[in-house]
Write a structure and sequence with these properties.
The complex is a heterodimer of chains A (188) and B (185). Chain A has 5 helices and no strands. With 188 residues, chain A is mostly helical. Chain A has 2 domains: 79 residues; 67 residues. The longest helix of chain A is centred in the middle third of the chain and has 93 residues. Chain A is rod-shaped, with a radius of gyration of 67 Å. Chain A starts with a helix and ends with a helix. By secondary structure, chain B is mostly helical. In chain B, 76% of the residues lie in helices and 0% in strands. In chain B, helix 3 packs across helix 4. The longest helix of chain B is centred in the middle third of the chain and has 24 residues. The chains are: A mainly alpha (188), B mainly alpha (185). The interface between A and B is large, with 31 and 44 residues.
Chain lengths: 188, 185
């Protein structure tokens, strides 16, 4: 019973509300147009999205490559600069080492020469020695001529030769003394 | 039965690429679909958009229709589903719209008044229907206003007959409570 009342109420309300505004006569055409548009969008959207993704990927790739190229170039330039600086430093170090070695060698050679020179007797001294020796021998011979052989003239001649040849030598002084002695002896 | 055979023929024709078959389907069912949508949406009157959406879904999905039920049942199923989502969207939209629109509609509806029901009673019934949860409102509309047989309703709603009976009982209980004064009279 209640169900009938509910049914009646609902149906009365439905009648009162009336029919909905009639759908347009071209509903089918509108729907078909919308369906075609949606199909096109559904078909085109993935393609467009794929195209956009591809383009974006291309741009991104290009950008990365450009960036990489630029970065690589910058890196290469930096490395080249560093390498040049390294070359310069190495050259400088080598030159320094070369100089030090040369100096060492020179110093060593100099030391050796000095050592050799040190080992060589002084020629002047040697000459002086030889001069002294010669003057002594002459004086010795003259002494033997005068004292042992009594050849006074030969002895005087030899003493004079010593004074003539080695005037500043000590044996020249000795020769002068002998000549003085001989002179005094002759006076006596 | 003849309609069913004709529907099958139209569907096959459409699936072969003849879109004029769809024009005939729309011509045949647009009124029923619009009326059902109007009832499911609480007699809102404006059903053009939702009807378009229903037939658009039908157009896009007709190739998948296997004729396991009648075309009308299939279209009603689409209608129920579309109206559910449409109501949800409208509910969100109505939070921003004043109740003045409803009153304006009542005034215009009253102009077509050919029954003894006054606008106050109509508003009470409408509100009672509107506050019913969808799972109760849909069986009520299909049963009492569309006057579909139980088999078809259970097919449209995708539920068993027992479940349909349960929902109808609960819907009636809700309505008895909400429309108690009107029923007593």
């Amino acid at each position: 019973m209640t169900e009938d009342k509910i049914k009646n109420l609902l149906q009365e309300a439905d009648r009162m509300a009336g029919l909905p505004i009639p759908v347009s006569a071209n509903l089918s055409a509108v729907v078909r147009r919308r369906a075609h548009r949606r199909r096109f969008v559904n078909l085109a959207a993935p393609l467009a999205a794929a195209a956009v993704v591809l383009i974006a990927a291309g741009i991104w790739n290009l950008a990365i490559r450009t960036t990489e190229t630029t970065q690589e170039k910058e890196k290469i330039a930096l490395l080249e600069t560093q390498l040049k600086q390294l070359y310069v430093r190495t050259d400088a170090a080598l030159n320094l080492i070369q100089d030090v070695l040369e100096k060492d060698q020179k110093q060593q050679s100099l030391d050796e020469l000095e050592a050799q020179l040190a080992s060589i007797p002084d020629p002047l001294e040697e000459i002086q020695k030889q001069v002294d020796k010669t003057a002594f021998i002459l004086v010795y011979q003259a002494d033997r001529l005068y004292r042992e052989l009594n050849r006074t003239d030969s002895a005087v001649e030899t003493y004079n030769r010593v004074i003539e040849l080695f005037p500043k030598n000590r044996w020249a002084q000795v020769a002068r003394q002998r000549l003085s002695e001989i002179e005094e002896q002759r006076k006596i | 039965m003849a309609d069913t055979i004709d529907d099958e023929h139209l569907v096959k024709q459409f699936n072969r690429g003849d879109e004029s078959a769809f024009d005939r389907i729309v011509e045949r069912y647009s009124s029923d679909i619009a009326a059902l949508a109007n009832r499911l949406l609480g007699w809102s009157g404006e059903v053009e958009d939702v009807t378009q959406d229903i037939f658009l879904a039908a157009f896009l999905g007709l190739k998948k229709f296997r004729c396991e039920c009648s075309l009308k049942t299939w279209l009603f199923t689409i209608t129920v589903n579309k109206c559910r989502s449409y109501r949800y969207k409208r509910m969100l939209r109505r939070q921003r719209i004043s109740q003045a629109a409803d009153k304006a509609f009542l005034t215009s509806a009253g102009a077509a008044d050919k029954t003894p029901m006054d606008s106050e009673t109509f508003e009470s019934v409408r509100r009672a229907i509107q506050v019913l949860p969808a799972k109760y409102r849909e069986p009520v509309v299909l049963r009492y206003l569309q006057e579909l047989p139980t088999d078809q309703i259970s097919r449209v709603l995708g539920i068993s007959k027992n479940a349909l009976q349960v929902r109808l009982n609960r819907a009636r209980a809700h309505l008895r409570e909400d429309l108690a004064e009107l029923i007593k009279e």
